[in-house]
Amino acid sequence: MDKAGVYKAKKKDGSTYYRASITYKGKHISLGSYSSSDKAHQAYLDGKALTEDNNISLTDFQHCKCLSHDKFISIINYRDNGIYIATPIYIRKQYFEYYLDKNTVLKFDRDDLFFYASHKIQRRGGYLFVSDYGSQYNILSRLGIKPFAVYGRDFVMANGDKNDYRYSNIKVINNYTGVRLETKNGIDSYAVYIHINGDYLVGKYDSEIKAAIAYNKAADTLNSLGFEKEFIRNYITSIKADEYKKLYNSVKISKKLYHI
Questions:
Q1: How far apart are CA 101 and CA 112, in angstroms?
Q2: DSSP state of 176
Q3: What is the pLDDT of residues 127-178, one digit of tens each?
């Protein structure tokens, strides 16, 4: 170690890099890897300043010259709340904040703290995912919202804050895949669309359950005709098997689906 908080290391190809770390409240905290000892030492100084100056707040990232924003949040949370969390989480009294980046702060209920403490949120194509057991999952699925749901059509945040993922703030409009609530002249109906190189109208129905079953029937029909796409089926728990079968047999779907 040539400078405080800096350790020289070797990559598999033999090249040198430098690790930075601090020890705070008896805990050894890694601050990341750097290409030079000067950068690693600066990261150490950044982290040390956070532990020694309680006036540095969550909005003061400009004080850090080399430390990553994720580590910045983790250290401040540990300093203020006494809990070290590797992901960029800051714990509030009744909820916690997840810093996706320095300009994007997500809010979650405390019940989700254990999960997000060990799962890093990623953003791709406008959706937020976590990786778990080798697969990627949209974080909306933890809130009872179907994958790839569209904000404003399938769900909304009650307070208008799209970054507030607390359960009490989520209002689900469409509960089932392919089903969209439509209101015309004050009358609600449920339109069903299935995606095959574009959205095809399966039909319109007077109940959400019938619409969900119609989507399943359309998916089954297309698969039976040779379409290899793995359509997500709607899982309906509010009716018994015999009632589901009766509705499945009676619900009508567009005849155009048979000639796509």
A1: 19
A2: S
A3: 899 998 878 889 998 888 887 788 998 999 999 999 999 999 999 998 899 9
